Amino acid sequence: MNMKSVCLFCGSNKGQRPEYITAAADFGRTLAEQGITLVYGAGKVGLMGVAADAALAAGGKVIGVIPEFLKAKEVAHLGLTELHVTDTMHQRKALMAELADGFVALPGGFGTFDELFEILTWAQLAVHDKPVGLLDVAGFYQPLLALTRHAVAEGFVPASNMELFSHSSDILTLLDTMRNYQPRHTAKWLDLAHT
């Protein structure tokens, strides 16, 4: 598929490892070099700000989406190509999803996990058929991958739903895998729950 825009989920902190900062900068720069618009939560802080600054410095287009209450706290990046302000967090996530052709999660905290799992749930329910990727920097997502495999083993996630996302420690490999993503609309989890 032709990905013209990618929505980034990542930390509003920079984390404890320099690799996280490097990966965020590399990601933003790589999107710009490939002519892919970066869509994200509009923060100027943490890995969010690092990725946006790197994309902008490389001549890329960056679209930020932020709720009014966070903009009022002066965490919004005001140097973006476009800045959309919403009333609520729910509207923010819906607009980011609408603006993106795919989704990538870098390391982050509860907000990142919330965004990632919501977009995976939407894929599971066939609300969208866009690719989702985890950039597994310094093994950050290995515990989450272990948890998802455990959920499959325990019968809470169909094994086929592991194909709803891809993961790699290499940015170019991840983007190529996402471009080749073929959505598979298997039986919905509600159907499976009643069999």
CATH level 1 name: Alpha Beta
CATH architectural designation: 3-Layer(aba) Sandwich
Our count of domains comes out at 1
Strand percent estimate: 15-25%
- Count the strands? 7
Taken in chain order, the helices and strands follow as EHEHEHEHEHEHEHH
Q: Tell me the helix content.
A: 40-55%
Q: Calculate the terminal CA-CA distance, rounded to whole Å.
A: 34 Å
Give a written overview of the molecule.
The chain has a single domain, classed as Rossmann fold, CATH 3.40.50. 44% of the residues lie in helices and 16% in strands. It has 8 helices and 7 strands. A 7-stranded parallel β-sheet has the order 4-3-2-1-5-6-7, sandwiched between helices. Helix 1 (18-33) links the parallel strand 1 (5-9) and strand 2 (37-40).
Sequence-ordered SSE layout with sheet pairings:
Elements: E1 5-9, H1 18-33, E2 37-40, H2 46-57, E3 62-67, H3 68-72, E4 82-86, H4 89-99, E5 102-105, H5 110-124, E6 132-135, H6 142-153, E7 166-168, H7 171-179, H8 189-193
Parallel strand pairs: 1-2, 1-5, 2-3, 3-4, 5-6, 6-7
Helix pairs in contact: 1-2
List keywords for this structure.
single chain, 195 residues, alpha/beta, Rossmann fold, 8 helices, 44% helix, 16% strand, globular, LOG, hydrolase, LOG_fam
Question: What's the quick description here?
Answer:
The chain is α/β, with parallel strands linked by helices and 195 residues long. Helix content is 44%, strand content 16%.
